[in-house]
Write a structure and sequence with these properties.
globular
């Protein structure tokens, strides 16, 4: 059971995270290196988890109805660690566009979610309003990329205005980088027109 302080702290965390972000500055300044991407975090209806949950969606700006990444996260807090447990949707196409059309989030039901073992992200507030996180288990979040099994290394930092992330995949057997950005972090800024 969360204390009042933990509940308020979790509310602040979720309010800081939720919204629409775009890497417009990065993509316009270096178009050959970075595609223009929109990133959404939306609060889910309470009934999904009987607790706090978030829907996240990432899509290219030219194709908003065809997101290339969709996930659901259950939010908890313990000992000042904010945990996002990750879930995969069994019907992602029904939710596509939910980042900017909240009516679609009504389609999310707990029976359509599969827990992604080893893929939870842990965050800490490193200074007021600034959160930093990474996977809480090393080499346990397994992703099949083009037929090859890789483990994910993910680093994230966000505040009320900015979200930066770096996702890389490493070959399970060789421990060599198999995929991910060669140019470093993706850098997103919150949209002022869609705080959601």
């Amino acid at each position: 059971m969360e204390s009042i302080e933990e509940w308020q702290s979790k509310v602040n965390f979720v309010k800081t995270l939720c919204g629409k972000y775009s890497n417009t500055k990065q993509s316009y300044s270096q178009p050959k290196l970075y595609a223009h991407i929109n990133l959404y975090f939306r609060l889910l209806p309470w009934k999904v988890f009987k607790g706090t949950g978030i829907y996240s969606e990432q899509s290219y700006a030219h194709s908003p109805w065809s997101p290339y990444r969709q996930a659901v996260q259950r939010v908890s807090i313990q000992n000042n660690i904010y945990r996002l447990e990750n879930y995969k949707l069994s019907n992602p196409e029904r939710i596509a566009g939910g980042g900017f059309n909240s009516d679609l989030l009504k389609e999310i039901k707990v029976e359509n979610l599969t827990h992604r073992e080893g893929c939870a992200m842990d965050f800490q507030e490193i200074k007021p309003g600034l959160y930093k996180g990474s996977l809480n288990k090393k080499k346990k979040c397994i992703i099949n990329r083009n037929g090859n099994l890789t483990y994910l290394v993910s680093k994230v930092e966000f505040s009320k205005d900015r979200f930066i992330s770096l996702d890389e995949g490493y070959d399970i057997k060789e421990n060599t980088k198999a995929w991910g950005s060669e140019e470093g972090y993706l850098e997103f800024y919150r949209s002022k027109t869609n705080k959601g």
